[in-house]
## 1
Amino acid sequence: MNAQAIQILFLKDLFLSRWWLFGYLLGGLLSAGVTSLPGESAGFIGFILMVTVTIAAGIHMIGVLLLAEQVDMTRTFVMSLPISLLDYSIAKISVVLVTFLIPWLGILTSLAVLAFVVPGAKPGVIAFLVPVFLFMLAGFCFQLVTAVISESTGWTIVVVVLGNVLLNVFLMNLNKNPIISELVKSDQLTWPPLVLTIIAIECLVIVTALGLAFLFQIRRRDLI
Amino acid sequence: MSTALDPSPHLTSAAALRGVCKAYRHFRLHDINIQIEPGTVNGLIGPNGAGKSTVMRILMGLVQPDAGTVTVLDQSISSHDVNAKREIGYFSDDMRLYKSETIEFHMQFVGSLFPSWDEVYARQLLDRFGLIPTQKVKGLSHGQRVKCLLLLILARRPRLLILDEPTNGLDPIAKQEVLAELMQIVTDENRTILYSSHNTQDVEQICDTITFIDRGRVIASNHRDEFLDSWRRFKLRTPEDWRAPSIDGLRSETSFGNLQVMTLDRYQPAAEERLQASGATVETSEAMTLEEIFVAAVVRGREETR
């Protein structure tokens, strides 16, 4: 493993996606700001905007940094350099993950801050938002593993659509749950066992998906 | 930046493929054996879809063979073992740069991966190729893109250059500029070049050794001058009941009544005497161009594998 080559590849991709990254982070922060505006509909619109920005950031970064290398034939150029498949895989999966995590974390953090500082906001909502955002992260990881295995935009979009449907089912079930319903109205941030269990399962799914993505990438025989 | 090449007197071969096979759904490389001597310029000629690019990708470790062994600069090469790639410059016609970025960005990116990157030479090439460092790749013409890729390859001073159809689609001026740069590199005895093309004129211009490949098979391999010396075309006037004498490598190309056009791929002066002795009159005996030899070898190879 060549740490220097991994770093160079990572920074190259971060640089290539810089404007998109900035755009998604800005969009995410603005939508988080919308949630703090007065009125019930502002909160709803802000939440929908946040989910949309997060999902769009995920699929776009996978497209720009992973799938486009195959379509635009820039991978032949990169792989002609002294870079092993291991270096390439570590750098690529890391940078795609990081470019998603930057707006993801930015939005989540700003929401958490707003929940504490905006008058009338309920800090208890954070225990609802964390499982929702982890669900979106897990969905992103499954899109990533699909893109790595299939190298197909079509299949990746299928997983995105499937992820969105499942996210809606997940949100519906969270809303129906009395423990969660109480949490979002609470002035105190608490982490009941149900929420911690959901978070643990989501973390396990995320780690499994990332492991699979890496495993499939490293076992590839032909690089182009 | 270092510009000196490490001369390697002990290098036994610049690249070697032994018994290499690779199967795709609609294409197969069959038992490829190619040996590339250090300090030589080698041409790989084949029609489109012959397997030239696959051979080069295997040499670069971009594609793994199903069978056989590959060594490059006396080292094994695979997707995990990239030491040899530090000293190889690979160009492929289907290789693309990041279109939203500038030439300068690419120079910095490639330079950061190669300790041997020669910035002075890179600037000279920019000037010689008429490239503007601040220009974005998406604004480059095909010829400029090829030159930019060659700059990125040459400025790292590789010991082995693997060039897959570098002059494909270039206008005559750009082609001449690229070939002139390659001719300059050829003067360095430490450099080895493998150059693929379906254009025999380009290959004939710069290559010492030539390998013909067709339908995934190596059909002939020889030094350029030996190729040119060993192939002959005869125009014969023959009597009605004439039968061709048994001469190794003699094949009929066309026949019009008592006029025969024949090719011979292992020419010896004695062949003409034997043809005369058989009753035929040798009207002309002419050397063939590399393109004619290539076409004849492909046709012969296809007949033999039919």
## 2
Amino acid sequence: MVVYSFYIFDRHAECIYKKKWAPRPTSTGSKTQQANGLADGAPQPKALSAEDDAKLVFGTIFSLRNMVRKLGGEDDRFISYRTGQYKLHYYETPTSLKFVMVTDTKTNNLRIVLHQIYVSLYVEFVVKNPLSPIEHPGGIGVNCEMFELGVEQFVNASLMS
Amino acid sequence: MASNKAARDGEKIWKTNVDKVNAELVTLTYGTMVAQLCSDFNHKYGEVNQQLDKMGYNIGMRLIEDFFAKSGVQRCGNLRETAETISKIGFKMFLNITPTVSNWSADNKSFSLIFDENPLADCVELPNDGRAQDELWFSNIFCGILRGALEMVQMQVEAHYVADVLRGDETTEMRITLLRYMEDEMPPDDE
């Protein structure tokens, strides 16, 4: 399986951590895409900056989560969604931290994995690090070497194999 | 029923999932800190209370994450459930005490926690300067912790002590009032 990217959003809707691995494939139609991006009237997917990407992801999960709650009751939650190209896994802690992982479509449910990242990496290295701020206003984000190393190792060891 | 389950869960987490430290170390560390604050603020106890609350608030915001990581508790449905969880799982897990939840207000928005034991205040006597007994809330850090922790689960509360055995009261009682449930924050608009 392949992990494309990983995001954490805090309760202020701020993306506090993002990491990209393999680039996510954009739809590769049979026709070669043209540089002007308007061939056949279909706009070619533009490469997004990392920030726009995170904003889009947040917008999606935010609406999806609210919709799920409206339809399925307050306690309902969405776990993942799948498109033809990728699968997005979602885990939200009771403190409104949102963990998002984008993988290829063949991946099984990663809810437990995301929970594991929260419990044994985020809480241990970010929350319990007394010098790391609790809130990350203005998009500074988690800047914690131990955590980054941990995520890297964890993903390589348990997911990329 | 829910309260029994909370008690069982609390017991189990305490036994299996928590690193313990020496209680006297906690008492002495906390006592030293309060004493230092008292001397830093020239025994203006009002300010000491405030500082303790502020420190607690910062602790609470972190502690809640540890609480969820270790306990696996889910979001509570109402304030009664929250109160039981605070007492039987929260306090149990971190301090091995279970304060009694009581004195519910008629609108179910405020309650008291009665502390039969308080590890922070073992062997403590308030100074006999005629003011400490009336002004200092020795364990005020708890109020801040609860305020900080509950804020992270979108509950804005007000917490203060109303009685303390250290002051000669019969019980140690903290009053907690739910002010409001906070809304989800939306991302700022782009344009």
## 3
Amino acid sequence: MENIKKSINRRSFLKASALAGGGLLLNFSWLASAKAAYTIGNNLNAEPTWTEITGYIKITPDNIIKILNPNPEFGQNVMTSLPMMVAEELEADWQKIEVEMGPHDNVKLGPQFTGGSNSVRMYWKPLREAGATARQMLMEAAAQTWKVPIEEVTTKGGILFHQKSGKTGTYGSFASKAAALPIPKEVKLKEPQHFNVVRSARKNVEGLKIVTGKPLFGLDYKQEGMLIAMIVHPPAFGMKLKSFDAAETLKMPGIKAIFSQKLYEDGFEQGGFDTRTFNDMLVVVGKTTWEVMQARKKLNVQWEPAGDTKDTFGGRGQKREVTVPGELESTDAMFKKMQEYAAKPAQQLRKDGDPETAFKNAAQIIERTYNAPFLAHNCMEPMNFFAHVTEEKALVAGPLQAPGWSEPTLAKLLNLPGDKIEIQMTRMGGGFGRRAYGHYLYEAALISKKVNAPVKLVYTREDDMTYGIYRPMYTATYRAALDANKNLIGFHVKGGGIPEHAIHANRFPAGAVDNYLAEGWQIPSNITIGAFRAPRSNFNAAAEQSFLDELAEAMGKDPIDFRLALLKRAKENPVGKDNDYNADRYAGILTLVKEKSGWGKPENKKYNRGVAAYFCHNSYAAHVVDMVMKDGQPYVERVFSAVDCGIVVNPDAAKNMVEGAVVDGIGNAFYGGLTHKNGKPEQSNFHQYRMIRMNETPKKIEVHFVQNDIDPTGLGEPPFPPVFGAVANALFKSTGKRFYNQPFAPDLNKKEGKQI
Amino acid sequence: MANFNIKVNGKVRQVEADPATPILWVLRDHLDLPGTKYGCGVAQCGACTVHLNGNAVRSCQLPVSAVANQEITTIEGLSAKGDHPVQKAWLEHDVAQCGYCQAGQIMSAVSLLKNKPKPTDEDINAFMSGNICRCGTYTRIKAAILDAAKS
């Protein structure tokens, strides 16, 4: 192994090597921090200081160019958009590029984390640099061969040209030579006006496989001799396994094993995303899915209350214990408890000016409370994972958003070193945050180890919906102080939730109001929660944007003009510090949606219009929702969306993402909700948990992006939260009533006295 | 357990299974045809939609014992190269996000167009509302169906 030690004064390192059979392989390694010497060698895996990002390109002598996509695909289209960024700078022919999902390798391929609307944002520079560096080396190889200055070599569509001499050659023909050249220290990236791959619509590279039913997903993964496993979990949060009798079940056809096992032994130090709901696994293993499904129904099982339990969390050298209350909770009681907590003093999150005095002196105080339930992610592909664990190594494959977070825990659970664990990421049938939590991977691996066979763990839809890791249950009370001239002189938000509150204290309208107070409180629970598309924002945007609409109404102002005036204040004379939004960009989406929707135009009078805007995940989104009554029910017929996420890499796919966010938002606003009775979820499948369908989808969703050259920011999440607020505000126009409790459909139900 | 001869995508296949086994699991576990997806198991989501004698059915509710001598078509058998007009329209509109539900959506759409070659908006709503798309691609699904109806 070759070792080179040097102090780091550059951020990137490339490793070029010849492919077997000729050709170029470029590894791009990017350092997270430049604090230590680093090692270059054949085994990059051995060097733990390589922590951030790499990508890689393979070129064969016959000019096949393959780009590995680093980040797991869950429908946000990174299999297409990330390779587009490489291809842009590589100057390769997009039509001829092959794209492959990369293996889990945080050294070569970077963080490999799908979530937080971060994929394009975090890979934007490194992947373009990767493409540009490879191009530069190919140009150098051609220049040397042709004995011409590199400045005279040009590239287009995977071909090198020397115009004066008329010489040409494919990337493939120069790949081996390029691989032997020194890595250029610096490369110049294209200015946005020269983009010809990025910013033009490119079709999903897996489109054909999807429409022909190819095995892309975790649930489709198969290996010779693979068994199917299912876990029977307690019927309620706060319960645990007491005993079981499997004698009869074991005689059923195809059944191989039934056993119980702990996921984490007592005191096991969990990582931050190792959330699990039930620690005792009651496992049924058999030959086929149907046989296991039938067998588990026949099991004779006794459950008992778990009482208070303890979770141990490790990481960052700090061990901490958390007590999980054992109560069997019910939604009504939880709601009452939230009201009690809301009346108690809470933690101050931000204070500007003197809000107490402003409220004392107010001519009018408006106070409204908003509530929202637990939400289940309901990815269309239920949780599942394949595992084949032996004494020496482990292969696991399935749908996973954050392999890098799961590997250390898996290594500890299996007592294997990280380099003996191979994680393959399949295409995910949806994620929405749910698959950032790796417990189902660990479960599959422990089961495989126990039965000493390749196993696929499958959650039924019921297992999936009743397991937990939900969007939390939230509440927030907003108060506004108006003076005698109806000016906004004070703003107060106090939010809480089970088990966390949703308040982002530094977001709008913080910075736009002189006297501002944000507070938060939370109630611990055994009902587990996790990231759900735009965590916290998905509640805040509903509550805050509904409240601002009601404020505008009380002040006799247009809801868009009211927001624009506040943003003008935040820009010109911001209140306080750490306001985490850009007032100009925020105002920009409101202005754009106002224009594109024909806001205030007489031809749109037939619609009950609601508007909302929000900033999260570094991007800005606004919607105007046009509601009509259809068959006596409010129906969102049209939506106009304006989004500022900087440069839009793949415009048509980006539109698709916004359209989907709008539909998802309307669906969850009207119907989404998971309730509990004595710890038991009251919804276990789609006959009880209502999802939006084709007939409830708008006829038209018109998406507009702000055109600018700002580096790309998030897109998967930002358009989702403001949909809730826009729908609530349109509902007010449709019904004359404000909607404070999500989901909205049951309240419509009450009003109209009929079932929805 | 019993033996069944079933006809899938034009071929007769022999399967040994519990007679109550839904065709969904016969396709996926016995015949290695994973294009048909499991979503709910209770005929609420449409991910498992296949054709039985040309009509859309939810394969999670169709026991293997009930399909003798009938033609089953799955997404894998819809066309040789993914060039059925509905598949082409799906690609043209770049419908998919995660893609998991799309096989079921396509099988439903093909069946709809067989019965109503020129569907109205309401026809599409009525027929396609049995298929859930969690990513919310419904507007593109509708546009693709209307496009496929033109060809």
## 4
Amino acid sequence: MIPLSLLGVGETASVGDVVGDVDLVHRLREMGLYNGARVKMIRPGSPCIIGLDGHRLGFRGDDLARVLVHVAAHAIAV
Amino acid sequence: MVSYPTPPSGPTMAIASDNQTWTIALIGNPNTGKSTLFGALSGSRQRVGNYPGVTVEKKLGEVVHDGRRWVLVDLPGTYSLAARSLDEMVAVDVLLGRRSDVQTPDVVVCVVAASNLARNLYLLSQVLELGRPVVVALSMGDLAEADGLTIDAARLSRQLGVPVVPIQAQRGEGLEALKQAVEEAGSKPAPTVASPFPAPFREEVDRLSATLASAPPRYLIERLLLDSGSEVKAQIAPGESDRAQLQQQVDDARVRLAEAGCRVPGVETTARYAWIARATEGVVEHPEHAVSRSADRLDAILTHKVWGSLILAAVLLLTFSAVFAWAQYPMDWIDAGFAAVSSFLEESMPDGPIRSLLVKGVVGGIGAVVIFLPQIFILFFILTALEECGYLSRAAYLMDKIMVRVGLSGKSFIPLLSSFACAIPGIMATRVIENRRDRLTTILIAPLMSCSARLPVYTLMIAAFIPARSYLGGLIQLQGLTMFAMYMVGVVVAAAVALILKRTLLRSATPVFLMEMPAYQWPSPRVILHRMLERGWDFLQNAGTIIFAVSIVMWGALYYPRISPEELKPLLVEKARIEAELDDANAANDAPRAESLTAALDGIGHRMDGEQERRSFLGRAGKVIEPVVRPLGWDWRIGSAVLASFPAREVVVATMGVIFDVGEDVDEGEGAQRLTGALQAATWPDTGKPLFNVPVALSVMVFFALCAQCVSTLAVIGRETQSWVWPTLSFTYMTVLAYIGAFLVYQLGMLFV
């Protein structure tokens, strides 16, 4: 698993662990960053914009919450 | 008629609905078109207020279907019913029928965005556990259609176990089918839905439930176990010892759950998303090649570091010029209207306290409030349009990079932007900020944004004392530059204050930025107009009542005590002499002489008014504070004008008009010029030097840029924070800063004069 911030523009991955502050992690999960959710990097950086199942989130976690993602071997830029 | 068994105890139990009136609750994620659906269903039959005791907005609408009256309750948009914030707790309480002011809903309509099914169904899975009949309104946004998404609504309905009705609220499609489904769902008992939670969790809920004498609804017990900062505990266990005991039980249960592999709160999202995966199996069909790429193209420009920032700067510039330029005409009309009412009252009533109270206190007070309505309408028209089309979230995204430097997130940007029109709606808009400390910081700095009420002060001082020079071949105007500088003073000081607050009193880490970037879409005119009227009404209620009351008090302080005729004798003798000469001149048909005498007579009248002001309570107070304001370069007249503007900054222009003997209609063209002249001509009585020079004018402007002279803002801060500590702090720190700022500007400025 790699940190979400390492994804380049247009790259997709699936959400794995989300680590950090318990309440914040819960909120991120509720907002759609659940295990296995497909995430696409739309604008990298801090904050970044990610695409998730038909919607987009502006997100900057800093040290409070870190999203780790699985990059499947066959994943291609969509 | 279904009558859900209300909890046997609880402080706020609802009355069961009667047969004629149903209560329908509307809930959904933000940006799902819920407001559009609410508007389409209830039309103009809407009421907006607050839930008593909390500052959560309560929106009620009315629908008549098949001769039955339905009360529609629009709950705040939320991603989850986790009962962490007041908004969420109110939503849970309304849905469970635990509020005395809303009847237990007969049907809950859950608005679910088709383009984004999984996350929207998360909220539905919580709603289903509340045990009410539920209908899903599947909102087919433009985006879902453009993407070529197909959804098998019948299959979804089967798998969810509740009716699913596809709607297109903006075009009014599917509304009849939705009403029909609501009618049917409400006539049947609520479906029983299996809990999505694993067995160990269900057992802990059962165990906890058995020990609670008050037998709260099952959903609340789940929340008790899941949420750390839950609002539920205080409701279930009112006593201090009960609460400690309950906490112990909850802690024990959590330890057991962790051992069983169901760690809270993670178990909730895992369980619900697993349920969602089952419920949506085979329901959604994505096209082979996604059709819509326009959103990508827009975002590529609008959120670009360079282009996006330039566009944002242009949008802000246009917004502000529109607010000031377009509002000018309606503001002039309102002004003229109130002036006409005033002069009608002055002509038709005898001189005396009652006429003065009506003209200066009542009409003047209401006028001072209503005059700002056009600016508020225009600003909210533009802000709502930008929000509805999805742009404002992108602006917040771009601003996040700047906001983190002062310890805030991009979410604080929108409230601060609104505060340039008026801090009141700005402070109310801070509700979207989750963290209490970040929200308080934003509330405390919002009044430093130069609101429209500062504008009259800036305009007057700049016109009178800043020379109309231009540089770079007319590209930069000194007067315009001064105005811009005043706006920047507020912004820079706000940034500094935020930095200090976040390191001391409200110490906390820089908040995480997490904000949905909704799909771009054409804004719905109905929603924009409604929001605009709502905000205007809010402003009138909040600001209006207070400004009105204080205007009357200030009128009294300026009107009383009356001077006796003996004290006015020299002026009265003079007046009688001029009147006699005027009669002579009129008799001799000497028009030019009559005209100059009439002007002299007006001058005497103004001097008499001025004498009265000086002797009034307010004038005396001004004399008392003169030593305090002297280091700012002010005399007692400026001092008392500033004192009088404590309820509202804009009052200062009218008060200066009275004190500097020009008469009060100084907002009108000629009057304003006369006030400018009077200010330029005013001198210190002891030395005869001009009272105002550039440093004094700047000191007055800087004082108004930074001071908290607005009772309505302070009242709203008190209401939103549910405490008098924060308004007191706001007032104190802003007044101290304003004094220091004015002092520095004057003292430094005098070095160059």
